[in-house]
Amino acid sequence: MITLDRAETSGSVGAGDARGSEIGLFALAERKLEWIDARQKQLSQNIANADTPNYKSRDIEPFSSMLDQFNVTPVRTSPLHLVGFADHLPGTVNTVSETAPDGNAVSLEKEMTKVAQDDTSQQLVGNLWKSYMGMFMTALGKSG
User: Fold this and answer.
1) pLDDT at 72
2) Are 137 and 143 in contact, with CB atoms under 8 Å apart?
3) Positive or negative CA dihedral for 14, 33, 122, 105?
4) In whole angstroms, what is the distance from residue 69 CA to residue 123 CA?
5) DSSP-assigned states of every residue in 59-74
6) Helices (H), 1-89
7) Predicted TM-score (pTM) above 0.90
8) pLDDT tens digit string along 91-142?
9) Quick one: which of 72, 9, 75 has its CA closest to 36?
């Protein structure tokens, strides 16, 4: 497992928070986009080495592990909110990667699925960013 270098994710931690004890929405969105960028680079290396003998597929540390350093905890503020799920949902299985006779363990199908998931995540983060910027602009009395 490859970790995302902390220097790559440093910067303004909280929007307007000088202590850095909280992480703002925009900082979180920026970090998620940096994570997606780093993961896309790793996935492209995996795909490029799909025919390299003895190459093992690699991935970076999950984004959720980056959040652990900020003590981000969801809070149920209303009894009408849904309760969260456990780490492993029923029906999910951790699969063992197959290895080709030449020792290569890259599954193009799995790698392309990860690329598609990252693309969806990137679109979501971009849409959230635009929505919040639109609300700020409206609050400031500007249209854009």
Assistant:
1) 60
2) yes
3) negative
4) 25
5) -BPPHHHHHGGGT---
6) 6-9, 25-48, 63-67
7) no
8) 434 444 688 888 888 889 999 999 999 999 999 999 988 998 888 889 988 8
9) 9
